[in-house]
Amino acid sequence: MAIEDDPQLRAELERFREDFARLREEVARVIVGQREIVDGVLMALVAGGHVLLEGVPGLGKTLLVRTLASVLEARFSRIQFTPDLMPADLIGTNVLVEGEGGQREFRFDPGPLFANVVLADEINRATPKTQSALLEAMQEHSVTVAGVTHSLDRLFFVLATQNPLEMEGTYPLPEAQLDRFLLKLIVPYPTAEEMETILDRTTDVDSPTASPLLKPERVLEMSRLARRIPVADEVRRFAIQTVMGTHPDQPQASPMVRQFVRYGASPRGAQAVLLTAKIHALLDDRYHVARDDIRAVARSALRHRVLLNFEGQAEAISTDAVVEDVMQHVGDAVLA
């Protein structure tokens, strides 16, 4: 049965749009501008993925995550990544405690990963061993200590921040670990008008705060609803061709890809594109995914999954430009 013929499902999807808009508006009470970043973070949250935020210090990345946790009535934790941070500092450890009868036993003391919304600040400053502990938890939604597996909450959302390439930390994330993030969002510098609003909000006596709106259970319900948006075969093929076109050894690759790209996006990239495109279509008041939805989310979903070769790095080619070129090339090939 089509969505248009199911009144109950249509009503649930309409409520989805209303709740998403309420979240967006409540976050905007605290965060000035950054509409694309806020929408990307919220879409990743609903899609059940994680986000990598890249931008120079002082652009409100931490404030955005704190605000998101507050509007969700969710448990929030912030982890400042440093070179001396150990995996146990993230996941927790077993501690020796004395019971009521005087006997001693080991009891698991959970770390800051046991929260709903986790801010991993400057993730590229921690050692690969510590990064791997976080990324394993992101993938498995559980951690293992002394052979015992401890499950994380069903709503487990990680937002990791890192400085831009020219300000890179001690241990940049390898491409295989970057692939674990559903989206990579580039936080832009505010405009003069936005800067004025920021100063008004942050230097006054009273600073705006966000109010709780949704419970984690509602976010999980919204995630299930978003997955019910259908994708036509032709649109799915466009998404597949776009991802395949980022590989220089594939026939769909454009001349730009063949010249400047070493490795292309993985199947996780295709999953990220389709999941976020479904949410984008729903927010645009449509019950089907169009090519424009694919185009709207492709850069955020693929920019961190495209690895440039030496020539591409020497020419300062951006992966955003590569993704745009691939979509143009794939679209022209279909029209031809």
Describe this structure in words.
The protein is of the alpha/beta class and 336 residues long. The chain folds into two domains: 222 residues, P-loop containing nucleotide triphosphate hydrolases (Rossmann fold, 3-Layer(aba) Sandwich), CATH 3.40.50; 107 residues, Helicase, Ruva Protein, domain 3, CATH 1.10.8. 47% of the residues lie in helices and 15% in strands. The chain is built from 14 helices and eleven strands. A hairpin with a 2-residue loop joins strand 6 and strand 7. Helix 9 packs across helix 11. The longest helix is centred in the N-terminal third of the chain and has 22 residues.
List keywords for this structure.
336 residues, Helicase, Ruva Protein, domain 3, 5-stranded parallel β-sheet, two-stranded antiparallel sheet, 11 strands
How is the secondary structure organized here?
Layout: H1 7-28, H2 35-47, E1 51-54, H3 61-71, E2 76-80, H4 87-91, E3 92-98, E4 104-110, E5 117-121, H5 128-140, E6 142-145, E7 148-151, E8 157-162, H6 175-178, E9 183-186, H7 192-202, H8 216-226, H9 233-244, H10 255-260, E10 261-263, H11 267-283, H12 291-302, E11 307-308, H13 310-314, H14 319-335
